[in-house]
Amino acid sequence: MKTNFSERKILTAAKRVIDIEVSNLLRAKKHLGSEFVKAIRMLASCKGKVIVTGIGKSGIIGRKISATLASTGTPSTFLHPGEAIHGDLGMVCGSDVVVAISNSGETDEILKIVPSLKKIGTPIISITSDARSSLGLQSTIVLNTGTIQEADPFSLIPSSSATTALVLGDAMAITLLSVKGFQRQDYAFYHPGGNLGRRLMLKVKDVMQTGKKIPVVDSERTMEDAIIEINRKNLGFTLVTDRKSRVIGIITDGDLRRLLAKKKNVFSCKVLECMTPNPLGIEEEKLAVQALAIMEEKEITCLVIRDKIGKAKGIVHLHDLLGKRHFSQEF
After folding, report:
1. How many helices (H) and strands (E) does the chain have?
2. Would you identify the CATH topology of the domain 200-322?
3. Fold (topology level) of 7-182
4. Looking at the whole model, is its pTM more than 0.70?
5. Computed from CA positions of residues 38, 40, 45, 49, in that sequence, does the dihedral angle turn out positive or negative?
6. Using one digit for the tens of pLDDT, what is the confidence trace for 97-116?
């Protein structure tokens, strides 16, 4: 075995692999068309679960695709075709959709379960490089990758084919995510063990900012005072309170930009004249994920937590929910 490869030869060999795999992905991209659209519509309307199957490297890719679907709100499981013919086909029902991965379309283990899938009445979406293969001809929908050139010098080792199937699977899962209107809070719900998921499943009271961290300006003050408070607390807004310290409004960076666009003498304006009244709030016992949902729906970045008489008990900013801490100077 040669061990005296130069640095140039090593890098050239590695770049060749990447170039070949990228060229296969671009070829697969060109093949995207009406069949892909049909596949997405079928998956979106699936009343059961999406069952992904494949063997060898395709099986490994299939497990990843199934996991991505499940984590983005589409019930999915992986079915090993070898186990399927020994009883695991019992998990398949007519309301499911099967995604079968086979580069050649002639994988014996998959072809053996196709008659049973047809008898059950389960539609098949195949990912293959040959739409005229045995699998392609028996599939409901064929996602044709086009001819695949594997990345090794002999074009034998599953490399480009595995990468292409993986990327097509990601394209399906993420397109499906968009079609279904899957949101950040949904992702957090399905990922309670992740950093974002753990944070968003906390209560608002666990992530809100309180005390001197809350930007506040009296309604009788001028906009100069409001701007100073916005800069001091560095949250992009300040609450406006009345003489009894009840929250009656909010002034944001956006409000300042709109005032400047009107060519007003911002510094001399009264806060009461420029504020947006009755800022949206949320109860402290609500989940952080619910606060995020409100912010995304209303296209705002903060919510107020009020006490029983309307005073600011706390504020929650978008960055608090996402775990991006603010290190503002306190005075």
Report:
1. 15, 11
2. CBS-domain (3.10.580)
3. Rossmann fold (3.40.50)
4. no
5. positive
6. 999 999 999 999 999 999 99
